Amino acid sequence: MTTQPSIAISQMDSIVGDVLAGTSFIDIHTHLFTPALGSLGLWGIDELLTYHYLEAELFRFSPITPEQYWTLSKSQRADLVWKTLFVDNTPLSEASRGVIAVLDALKLDTASNTLEPLRAYFRKQTLDEYVPRVFRLAGITHAVMTNDPLDPEEAVRWTRGIETDPHFPAVLRIDRILNQWSAHHDALAAQGYGVDANAGGQTMRELRRFFADWVERMKPVYMAVSLEDTFLFPVDDIRTRLFREAVLPACREFGLPMSLMIGVRRLINPALRLAGDGVGRADMHAVQNIALEFPENRFLISMLSRENQHELCVIARKFRNLLPFGCWWFLNNPSIVEEMTRERLEMLGTSFIPQHSDARILEQVIYKWRNTRRTIGPILARSYKLLIADGRNVSRDDVQRDVNRLFRTNFENWIQRAD
Ligand code: RAT
Ligand code: ZN
């Protein structure tokens, strides 16, 4: 039992808000890169405005066709997005409001008619000072990366060797291997591994050797894949075999959790490119079967469809090797974050990770984490108020312990636990 004084119900919102503001989080899934990976890392106003979430919105407001849009230069695209979504229209959507919040946090003009003054500001920043400042503004200590060993631009940098950066832990992302083996086994072969199109012969052993080499090179904190809404497991296909015979054994060997992000419906509008993906409800039998078949693997799980969230909570209650995380992509809107977080607290207590940013552009962590704190604060406070009403005092230490768990130690324990 707590020895600290109980928080009065009337103080709860402000104390929870305080604790959230005063706790630095670990951002467990981003598409950011350590500065050591050079031009792979995106930042600045042109990148912020050409984020694919905003590109999708642009085509709802502008008559430009995707084909015309892709012929423009990056700065022309940014100019068009700014004029369309921020000057000619009110930036009310979550992604557009995010740009406003970033500009405001950096004390820049949020209603500028042109981008030039903003560009001038970003040109003056140097990453060694700017990255820590952005992390401070976002209230995070770490941005976990997404690293693709079969991306030619990225692989060459890792192979040459980069200095590891404790603030940007790596993640071995294996979509190309698990989702498109037929298109990518050649790339593995080109890196010197004896794999073949049918995943026969030495393939599994060689793929495990590939993982061992990349684990050594990247020192990842977990392995990851995103999967379509149609994903089923097990089925009689190459992916099931790769998963069973190479990926999960490698995770066990190196003590790494496997992250499964399930529910994307790829390129429902191909002309939009990265902005063209959609969502579909997935069959949760796949998650259940995986959890049951591999009790010695640990899984981070995020479902993209709102309709899958309740089932995920139920399955997580039955399988301690599953850790639900994040309100991913189309779910990262206050209305849905609210609903999902309440449901998770009610069904899982603090045994989940409420959010990750999925930031692709450095400064996005500022608005994404600010919004998370703003949305989740009242949800947490509400749970404590209910607990007090039911007869248990809640101290500031209790709140601090829970916030640490949700936004730091659940993840730290998951990536360190060797059982
Ligand atoms: O949220 C996004 O930016 C998506 O485009 C995806 O990258 C997704 O988060 C993923 O990791 O596959
Ligand atoms: Zn992502």
Describe the structure.
The chain is α/β, with parallel strands linked by helices. It has helices at about 10-20, 45-50, 50-60, 65-70, 75-85, 95-105, 115-125, 125-140, 150-160, 175-180, 180-190, 205-220, 240-255, 285-295, 310-320, 335-350, 365-390, 395-415; strands at about 25, 140-145, 170-175, 225-230, 260-265, 280, 300-305, 320-325. The strands form two sheets. Strands 3, 4, 5, 6, 7 and 8 form a six-stranded mixed beta sheet that branches. The longest helix has 26 residues, at about 365-390. It is globular, with a radius of gyration of 22 Å. The relative contact order is 0.15. The model has no long low-confidence stretch (mean pLDDT about 95). The chain binds D-arabinaric acid and zinc ion (ZN). D-arabinaric acid binds next to loops.
| Helix percentage range | 40-55%
Backbone shape = globular
In whole angstroms, the N-to-C terminal distance is 30 Å
Radius of gyration: 22 Å
Provide the list of bound ligands, each named once.
D-arabinaric acid, zinc ion
Q: Count of DSSP E strands?
A: 8
Number of helices: 18
What structural class do the secondary elements suggest? alpha/beta
State the oligomer.
single chain
Averaged pLDDT? 97
Question: What string gives the helices and strands in order?
Answer: HEHHHHHHHEHEHHHEHEEHEHEHHH
What fraction of residues sit in β-strands?
A: 5-15%
Pick out the low-confidence regions: none
Biggest sheet statistics: 6 strands, mixed
Features:
alpha/beta, binds D-arabinaric acid
